[in-house]
Amino acid sequence: MNASHPTKIGIIGTGNIGTVHLQQFSKLADRCEITAVADTNMPLAAKRAQEFGVPHVAPSAEALIHRDDVEAVIIGVPNQHHADIAIEALRAGKHVLLEKPMSLNADTARSIYAAAKNSKQVLMIAHQMRFESVPMQIKAMVDRGELGRIYTAKTGWYRRKGIPGWGTWFTRMDQSGGGPLIDIGVHMLDLALYLMGNPKPVSVFGATYAEFGPRRQGIGTWGTPDWNGIYDVEDLATGMIKMDDGSSLTLEVSWAVHMDTDNSPFIHLMGSDGGACYRGSEGKLLHEKFDRPIESRICRPEDDEGERERLSKHFLDCVQHGVTPISSALTGLTNNLVLDAMYESSRTGHEVKLDWEL
Question: Which SUPFAM superfamilies does the UniProt entry name for this protein (predicted)?
Answer without folding.
Answer: Glyceraldehyde-3-phosphate dehydrogenase-like, C-terminal domain, NAD(P)-binding Rossmann-fold domains
